[in-house]
Amino acid sequence: MYNKNILIRVDFNVPIKSGKISNDYRIRSTIPTIKRVIDQGGKAILMSHLGRPNGLKYAETEADERIKRRALRTWAHEAGTGKTTYFALLSGPEKKRILSWSSVYKEAEDLSEVEGSGKTDLFSRLHEDEKKVLLDRLLAEQRQEILFPNLRQYQGYDEELSLKPIAKRLEELLNENGGEGTRVLFAEDCMDAEKYVKQLQPGQVLILENVRFYSDEGSKKESERMVMAKKIASYGDYFVSDAFGTAHRNSATMTGIPKVLGHGAGGYLMSREICSFVDILKDPKRPMVAIVGGAKVSDKIILLEHMLAHIDVLIIGGAMAYTFLSTQGYNIGISFHQAGQSFTDKYGEKRNIDKLAAALLEHAEKKGVKVGLPVDHICHTKCEFTKEPLTTDDANVPDGYMALDIGPKTIDYYCSLIQGCQTAIWNGPMGVFEIDTYSKGTFAIAKALGDATEETGMLSVIGGGDSASAAEQSGHAVRMSHVSTGGGASLELLEGTLDHICHTKCEFTKEPLTTDDANVPDGYMALDIGPKTIEYYCSLIQGCQTAIWNGPMGVFEIDTYSKGTFAIAKALGDATEETGMLSVIGGGDSASAAEQSGQAVRMSHVSTGGGASLELLEGNMLPGIAVLDDK
Q1: 604 CB contacts (<8 Å, ≥6 apart)?
Q2: Which helix (H) or strand (E) holds 99?
Q3: What is the pLDDT of residues 352-401, one digit of tens each?
Q4: What does the pLDDT read at residue 344?
Q5: Relative orientation angle of helices 465-474 and 440-456, to the nearest 10 degrees
Q6: Distances from the Cα of 209 to the Cαs of 161, 188, 212, 427, 521, in angstroms?
Q7: What whole-number distance in Å separates Cα of residue 247 and Cα of residue 581?
Q8: What is the value of pTM for the model shown?
Q9: Which of 209, 282, 263 has the alpha carbon at shortest distance from 56?
Q10: How far apart are CA 473 and CA 491, in angstroms?
């Protein structure tokens, strides 16, 4: 590893305001991997995204020097996708209006409202203070009351999305406890960093600017992603992924670079994350509780449905609880909810939320899973700080009020449920914990999990995102078994199988039933994985460099139910040829399926031994091999 360039994909998507990082947990979590590289004389080149900027297309910046200069000026002076990008997304009339208030109003008079006339370039040359005054005036005139500011995505010019503050913080962390002066360099353009890479010395670190400043990073077009991947891959000799938080993304720096280099390794954080979730999903200690909060049922419904097959207790909090309470006939006032609504899921299917909520509770009852819903609330007329919130007597919320946290009775109830369990997975807060008035419920859950972990040996896994932030803020994160760095990634892992191909009998049919989710209707049997699951499994395979396959996905001998198994065979064949994957098929039905699908010739090796390959994988010595001479 000495003097080699090691590309490390990390997840430094941390909260930053005015150059200050409020929670550096994700940065600290990657230190062991980074130190392993630099302690051996390697040169660590780190890549990460931050937030959801409206990135530029690399091809456009290369073709137009004016666009590139403006982008670099914006990134450098506005801490990322700041004021100029916000201005650029406005309509032509709005831009003209803003410029009419500015010091360059005379120059602006000659510019048309049509796109491309130079309004954004003119705005970009203004002093930062003037830009702020102009945009503040616009927002003041257009301002609408936001009931739940904590629920919004990036949409303002004052959110900093540059990794420059992170480079400074990482250098501080690497040099804590008597460090030897490790330098962390910063490249202001991730696609033009050759000069910084050449300057790197053994034991030094380079952070590339936010990879999402280029839209190619997450483009739906693989060709665009691969252009970016090839460029960044040219900086390194080896690739390591420690970005569990974005492991569910098929992006240029997550899956593209290992395809280009022909290899990929997992870092210490990635290993720790996967092992923790394996412990939860494989054979957890009983009873097991899932604590699920957050705003929207639509965001968590697949997780809730899948977890019912694994858990004994389900605790529901946050705004999503009010949707469940509403469907049961409780008054929820003006609380945020999705009752009476429908949504289109990420697979294009329309889902009725009331029916989903009712079906989930019914399914839980059939499974014998105890479901906890709030029995009282902390309320206010607005989502803002108050010294005198209203505490309800029961589960009903008065008219004109919104529930913003679980109440004291609910806290006692939920903590008692947690105390009786041996395994816990927590994903989503109980209320608007960012505001002190409404933090007690979330922090009480964190304390209960910490207490149970220390006192009874509970396995407690916090599923990233807001839950991880809450655990950190409450001071109880250090008491948990594992606090994940991945919100979306942990959800993907916990959601498991997405859909099935079903029929009433194990026989050929031209019209099998494809389920909407992981549930199989009464009277039907699942005989193959469905199209969503095929897509999901193939995306997981694409990100790997070694694969062992033992066992089909369904009853592939019957044509109706062969698609899942054959799709896996094709995905392995594609990866073997395109990225140099080592693919080993473990004999038996897998070998037969690989042959029938026509993909066997594309694999690295198709074993002739089903039982023998299983024995080897289990770590057992094969008697028929043990008796052979070493030579």
Answers
A1: 576, 581, 582, 583, 584
A2: helix 92-100
A3: 888 888 888 988 998 899 999 999 999 999 999 999 999 999 999 999 99
A4: 72
A5: 80
A6: 9, 5, 9, 30, 49
A7: 18
A8: 0.59
A9: 209
A10: 22
In this prediction, residue 80 has a pLDDT band, given cuts at 50, 70 and 90, of low
Which residues are the active-site residues? 26, 296, 465, 488
> Given its phi and psi angles, is residue 178 left (phi above 0), alpha (psi -120 to 50 degrees) or beta?
left
Strand partners, 352: 342
pLDDT tens figures, 593-626: 888 999 989 988 887 654 555 555 555 555 555 5
User: Can you point out the beta strands (E) in 409-544?
Assistant: 423-427, 459-462, 482-483, 500-503, 513-514, 525-529
**Helix orientation angle between 31-39 and 268-282, rounded to the nearest 10 degrees:** 140
The contacts of residue 298 (CB under 8 Å, 6+ apart) are: 338, 343, 345, 351, 353
Could you give phi then psi for residue 276, rounded to 5 degrees?
A: -65, -40
Q: Rounded to whole angstroms, how far apart are CA atoms 532 and 554?
A: 15
- Name which of 355, 294, 311 is nearest 494 in CA terms: 311
Q: What are the phi and psi torsion angles at 379 (to 5°)?
A: -130, 160
Q: What is the dihedral of CA 389, 390, 391, 395, to 10 degrees?
A: -130
75, two tokens: 């990134």
Q: Collapsing DSSP states into helix, strand and coil, what is residue 201?
A: coil
Instruction: Kindly tell me if the per-residue pLDDT of 148 is higher than 50.
Output: no
Buried b (16+ CB within 10 A) or exposed e, 527-542: bbbbebbbebbbeebb
The three-class DSSP label of residue 544 is coil
Q: Quick one: the chain helix, strand, coil %, rounded to 5?
A: 45, 15, 40
3-state SS class at 395: coil
CB-CB contact of 212 with 243 (8 Å): no
